[in-house]
Amino acid sequence: MTPHTPAATVIYAIGDIHGRLDLLDRIQRQIADDAMLRAASRRQVVYLGDYVSRGPDTAGVVDRVREWLPEGFERITLKGNHEDLLLRFLDGEIDTGRHWLDYGGLEAMSAYGVVIADRDARDDASVIALGEDLAARIPASHLEFFRALQTRHRSGDYFFVHGGVRPGVPLEKQSDRDCLWIRKTFLNSDADHGAMVVHGHSISDEPELRHNRIGIDTGAYSSGVLTCLVLEGEARSFLQTQVPE
C-alpha cells in the first residue's frame, strides 16, 4: 500500500541543518515558491532536528526556525541528537559535554559568543567553564525552544523522527533515545514499521528511498546540499540547495 498524507495536505520535511543558515534561507524560499503552486489547503513544515553544531551559525538557524512561518503553514520542530547533547551538557553532564565538543559543539558555542581559548582542552575544569559560559550566553528563548522540541510526529501514513525507530517496537512505544540516536539497527532493517519513517541523522550523498523509510540527511554542513522532502497525497518529490560551481 502506498503511503498517503492526510487529505488536502502538503508536507515539507527538512533534513539536518547543522548551523547552515545560508542553506536554510534558500530551502525556505524554495518551499514558499513551491507552496504557491499547490492547491493543498493544509501545509506543514517538519524540521527533523540537528539545528545546532558543526556549521557556523547555530544561533541564526534557531532564530530563523522560530520566526519563519508563512501564512497558512503549520510548524513541527523535532529534536535531534545534537540538541540532546546540548541540553544534557547544560544540565551538568560533563562527559556528554566532552563528546559534544568533539562533534561540532565548539562551533555551536562560538555562535553564541563563547570565546574558546584552547579548542583541545577537555579536562573537567575547562569543560565545566565552557558549559557555564554557554549557559550565561544562550538566550532564554532558545533554551525554551530546545526544551520544547518533540521527538516524533505522525501525519497520515508518515512517521517523522530524527534518528529512526527500533524494529519490532510499535511506533507509540518507541523510546526517545531510539528516536534520537538509533542508526544501524534501523538502517539495516527490512521490517514494516507501521508507517513510512522519514528521518535524518545518517548522512548519504542522495536521499535514501527504501520500502520502509526515507532518509534525507545529505550532510548539509559540509556538502552544501540541504534536502527537503515534499509529500502530497501519495506523491513525493525533493527540493535541494545546490553546491555553487
Itemize the secondary structure elements and their pairings:
Elements: E1 9-14, H1 21-36, E2 42-47, H2 58-67, E3 73-77, H3 81-90, H4 94-111, H5 124-137, H6 140-148, E4 152-155, E5 158-161, H7 176-181, H8 184-187, E6 196-199, E7 208-209, E8 213-215, H9 220-223, E9 227-232, E10 235-240
Parallel strand pairs: 1-2, 2-3, 5-6, 6-8
Antiparallel strand pairs: 1-9, 4-5, 7-8, 9-10
Helix pairs in contact: 3-4, 4-5
Which key terms come to mind for this protein?
9 helices; globular; alpha/beta; five-stranded mixed β-sheet; 37% helix; single chain; Purple Acid Phosphatase, chain A, domain 2; 245 residues
Structure description:
By secondary structure, the chain is of the alpha/beta class. It has one domain (9-240): Metallo-dependent phosphatases (Purple Acid Phosphatase, chain A, domain 2, 4-Layer Sandwich). It contains 9 helices and 10 strands. It has helices at residues 21-36, 58-67, 81-90, 94-111, 124-137, 140-148, 176-181, 184-187, 220-223, and strands at 9-14, 42-47, 73-77, 152-155, 158-161, 196-199, 208-209, 213-215, 227-232, 235-240. The chain has a 5-stranded mixed beta sheet, covered by helices on one side. Strands 4-5-6-8-7 form a 5-stranded mixed beta sheet. Helix 3 (81-90) crosses helix 4 (94-111) and helix 4 (94-111) packs across helix 5 (124-137). It is globular, with a radius of gyration of 18 Å. The termini are far apart. The model has no long low-confidence stretch (mean pLDDT 96).
